[in-house]
Design a protein that fits this description.
The chain is α/β, with parallel strands linked by helices and about 325 residues long. Helix content is about 50%, strand content about 15%.
Length: about 325
């Protein structure tokens, strides 16, 4: 077990290491190094960077093992660094860029102020996240790419480990660009789907579903889940939705879903569920971002989800482990 001082000083150093990774991701260094090693001057020219400054970042990145020295003042990618290439399966580039985006960086840096008064400093400056994204195409594009990359292991787990009813219609509530719905429909060729999300997201979803050859089995409906959701579905998926909202808002969303679904319908809540123990867990890390970015957004434990669903007139029936820290919670009408 590391000494507590090692853990604390390690956390202090993490901000410097993340800043180096952010620089690598923003400048596309992994893409520039994809075909082999480059000296610092050549790499700086391709990335539009100041060579002496870049040299110092490369030194840190080499210490982290994402690049390696490949000659006098030259660097090459390591196997670990390949994950920062834009074309790498499961690339982490978009995730790093999103978490380092100006407004997100501000949110995490002002977490102490948020904790002091219980109100998100991010919201005070930028408004609600989704309104901020709707008004700012740059951060919105980064966020969409980040959510798509983050959802890949969850989505694969959902398609492989959950048995959907034959011939069911699934409504993907706040389904984003449609990658989750597309994966489920490909894995279940007799199902149909409806993707429901805000107007500024809907066109992206239509393009995704068309590109996936699913336009004849899926439709996209624009709207606000606080006002209502499409009726008549057999399965309603809420993937990374409820953790953005406090209990009262989450109950409004769940209530609208319960009212809209068929009598024997199912609600599927895909979230990272907090453990009851004090062990390190992905959900606890994400919860710090929820605290910083939303007023009321929170990760929840199994018991807290069961209680929330119960208040919405739903009964938790099954929990499926999806891998990568995510769970699928199934609920039906009580």
């Amino acid at each position: 077990m590391p000494h507590s001082d090692d853990l604390l000083w390690g956390a202090v150093g993490d901000i410097s290491r993340f800043a180096a990774l952010l620089t690598m991701a923003e400048l596309g260094l992994a893409d520039h190094l994809a075909d082999g090693p480059l000296d610092t001057a050549e790499l700086a020219g391709r990335a539009g960077a100041h060579a002496p400054s870049l040299r110092r970042v490369l030194r840190e990145l080499a210490a982290m093992g994402v690049v390696k020295v490949a000659g006098p003042d030259a660097y090459d990618l390591t196997e670990k660094g390949m994950a920062l290439r834009s074309d790498a399966p499961g690339s982490v580039r978009s995730s790093i860029r999103m978490l380092g985006e100006e407004s997100f960086w501000y949110a995490m840096g002002t977490l102490p102020a948020t904790v002091r008064d219980g109100s998100s400093a991010f919201v005070k400056r930028y408004g609600h996240l989704y309104g901020h994204l709707a008004a700012n195409p740059g951060p919105s594009s980064l966020f969409d790419d980040y959510m798509t990359a983050r959802a890949i292991p969850f989505t694969e787990g959902l398609a492989k480990r959950y048995r959907f009813p034959a011939g069911a219609t699934m409504v993907d509530v706040a389904g984003g660009k449609g990658h989750i719905l597309a994966t489920v429909l490909h894995a279940n060729p007799h199902m149909r789907g409806i993707l429901f999300d805000l107007e500024h997201v809907a066109d992206h979803a239509r393009r995704t579903l068309a590109d996936e050859g699913l336009s004849d089995r899926a439709e996209v409906v624009a709207g606000d889940f606080f006002a209502g959701v499409p009726a008549g579905g057999d399965v309603y998926l809420l993937a990374s939705v409820l953790h953005n909202w406090d209990d009262e808002d989450a109950l409004k969303i769940l209530g609208n879903v319960r009212d809209a679904m068929n009598p024997d319908g199912r609600v599927l809540v895909l979230e990272v569920v907090l453990p009851d123990s004090e062990e390190p867990h992905l959900g606890k890390d994400i919860d710090m971002r929820m605290l910083a970015i939303f007023n009321g957004g929170t990760e929840r434990s199994h018991d807290e989800y069961a209680a929330l669903l119960g208040r919405a007139g739903l009964a938790l029936t099954e929990v499926v482990e999806l891998g990568s820290g995510a769970n699928l919670i199934e609920a039906v009408r009580r």
